[in-house]
Write a structure and sequence with these properties.
Layout: H1 4-13, E1 16-29, H2 31-34, H3 39-51, H4 54-60, E2 63-65, E3 68-82
Antiparallel strand pairs: 1-3, 2-3
Length: 85
């Protein structure tokens, strides 16, 4: 849940040298977020997604297909090496 710049700062503060940072996006079903979540919380997540406006839905790339809601999920891959003390 951190931006690339936040990962770089945290790792630098922990004495790591960041060699590469690669953010990427992956389309996943909303159920990937709600698996293992209480039914009440899952319903709240679905309510929030359903209440998004046109521009918010576009920003999250919300698509409904085959009775499933899909959204973009954002990730950051970081390669770091611990600096010698």
């Amino acid at each position: 849940e951190y931006r690339s710049s936040e990962w770089q700062l945290m790792l630098s503060e922990a004495s790591f040298e960041v060699e590469a940072i690669e953010p990427y996006t992956r389309r996943r079903p909303l159920s990937a977020l709600t698996a293992g979540v209480s039914p009440g919380n899952a319903a709240e997540i679905h309510r929030i997604i359903a209440s998004l406006g046109k521009f918010q839905r576009a920003a999250m790339n919300v698509v409904e297909k085959e009775d499933e809601i899909y959204t973009d999920h954002w990730y950051v891959m970081v390669v770091g090496v611990k600096r010698a003390a």
